[in-house]
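Field reference: "sequence" (input) and "structure" (output). Example, DUF3243 domain-containing protein:
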Amino acid sequence: MEIGHNWHKWKEILGDAVGLGERVGMDEETINNVAYRLGNFFADKFDPANDEQRLMKELWDEGNEEERKTLASLMARVSHKASTRH
């Protein structure tokens, strides 16, 4: 299954999802927990479609649980920030 060859589009979709979570009342901790669970799902089920996703997968695979949670939180923030610029 293809999850997005274009890094910027993939990041925009993730950012939109973070924005939706905020609009429905999710707090930052909940959003970060969802991002972490999605990160696990994507790492297990999908092959990276571009160099940026490959790097994210390598970092995810190398990290321990706490590092993965940090990576998920950072990715959620970066993606949300990028989506609010459009």
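The mean pLDDT is 86.
The two ends are 27 Å apart (CA to CA).
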